[in-house]
Amino acid sequence: MQTSFSLMQLLDPQVASSEKILRACVHCGFCTATCPTYVLLGDELDSPRGRIYLIKEMLEQDRPATREVVKHIDRCLSCLACMTTCPSGVNYMHLVDHAREHIEKTYKRSLADRFTRGLLARVLVDPALFRLAVVAGLVARPLAPVLDLLGLHRMAAMLRLTPHRRPAPPVDRVGKVYPAEGPCRGRVALLSGCINPVLAPSTNEAAIRLLNRHGVEVVVAAGEGCCGSLAHHMGREDEALARARNNIDAWTREFDGAGLDAILVTVSGCGTTLKDYGFVLRNDLAYASKAARVSARARDITEYLATLDLRATGTAKSLTIAYHAACSLQHGQKVLREPKDLLSRSGFVVKDVPEGHLCCGSAGTYNILQPALAEQLRARKVANIESLAPDVIAAGNIGCITQIAAGTATPVVHTVELLDWATGGPVPEALIAVVNGDAPAT
Ligand code: SF4
Ligand code: SF4
Fold it and tell me: Is 89 a pocket residue for ligand 2 (Cβ < 6 Å)?
């Protein structure tokens, strides 16, 4: 694609990077077929190619974002299916990130939009506040249809996504070290994160147990916190970078102290963000090399587990699993085989979900900010999953787990909890009824 940025514009490293990305696009349109919003809406401007044109025009002319541009960029899930499909290697992720930052700086959103985004950016990243919000959501959940009637669809979506149970009491893992059982084969940091400790503390509990049992010491580094992903996807770049630097400092202390073989992540959306710290901080002299080291050592938990010889105990009982590949894992990190191979080797029967490349509609805060599209994507995902009649759905991302669980009676369990169970850990809570034969699988 030809571009016409001025030399002055190209002095800005972010513009120079986006220009390079734009020039790689040959307008072939292959990406449109796998883009969930194009599949649903059939509008070229809701396809990757259409969005690339919109971004090109906005950046080339260095003009404030228009309402039309914001509408189509906001509808993008950042699922990155287009990057998997693109034969020219167009880095749509970095381009749309740049566009979101430009929108945040140049476009004044409505008061309601600013309020919702501000609320999400504040509450979701603070486990104490988020816990309170979940408890309030539990009480207010029955009001979701009323909010819909009042046109407050985003608030209604938030209530519908609230889990049915109170969050477990908080367990502060930050700054703790969990020693290996037997001879120590490795030492890793585990990202505790912000959403997981409230909605699914069992995931990191299972990860720690599983790693310790296989001879790996785990540290949750003192000072670590939210990875910055939620702020980043809302274009709040200063906030996202501050969170990245904070985590890099925390892990650098560990690298320079007792040492780390890897930084493990059980939320694949956060994993994609960690693996990109090196890029987003490449021009920060104080952080560039430290950020690059963090990105180089960041791993999805299944990537690291695949390097260990997991010892299955035979408890998995050949349950049939529909494996949902989170977009951030399959498109963002290109981690495709590891989760499925680990589950199969542990005794489960693993099935691929039809149309597995299409997003479930979770996408960070997308299911709250774009509830109508997100619900259509969830319905399509759940129908595809249920066509397999699985006993359980496995996924590696809390966003997907929450989104899919809101649309099906089949239990949705994190991959690492299933692996922990299959190698000697407790039955995942969501599976107890299925394992005991007390409940129909679907
Ligand atoms: S990231 Fe996903 S929704 Fe956005 S343009 Fe690419 S395929 Fe479409
Ligand atoms: S598939 Fe790649 S090269 Fe083709 S239009 Fe899409 S982004 Fe451009």
Answer: no
Tokens of 247: 């985590």
Measured from the CB, is residue 49 less than 6 Å from ligand 2? yes
Helix (H) or strand (E) holding 55: helix 48-60
For residue 27 and ligand 2, the question of a CB distance below 6 A is answered with yes
Question: How many angstroms does the Cα of residue 73 sit away from the middle of ligand 1?
Answer: 9
Distance between CA atoms of 226 and 121, rounded to whole angstroms? 11
- CB–CB of 56/1 below 8 Å? yes
Report pLDDT digits (tens) over 198-243.
999 999 999 999 999 999 999 999 999 999 999 999 999 999 999 9
User: CA-CA distance, 369 to 71, in Å (whole number)?
Assistant: 12
Could you read off the pLDDT of 262-285 as tens digits, one per residue? 999 999 999 999 999 999 999 999
Question: Distances from the Cα of 350 to the Cαs of 337, 347, 394, in angstroms?
Answer: 11, 9, 9
The dihedral over CA atoms of 12, 92, 97, 121, expressed in degrees to the nearest 10, equals: -170
Amino acid identity for residue 430 in this structure:
A
Measured in Å, residue 95 CA sits from the centre of ligand 2 at: 13
State the ligand closest to the CA atom of 56.
2
**Nearest ligand to the C-alpha of residue 1?**
2
Q: Whose CA is nearest to atom 7 of ligand 1?
A: 35
CA pair distance 24, 2, nearest whole angstrom: 9
Give the single-character DSSP code of 34: G
Residues of the chain with pLDDT under 50: 440-442
Q: Which residues lie across from 413 on neighbouring strands? A: 394
Whether the predicted model's global pTM rises above the 0.90 cut: yes
User: Which residue do the tokens 């399509």 mark?
Assistant: 380
Predicted confidence at residue 442, as pLDDT, reads: 42
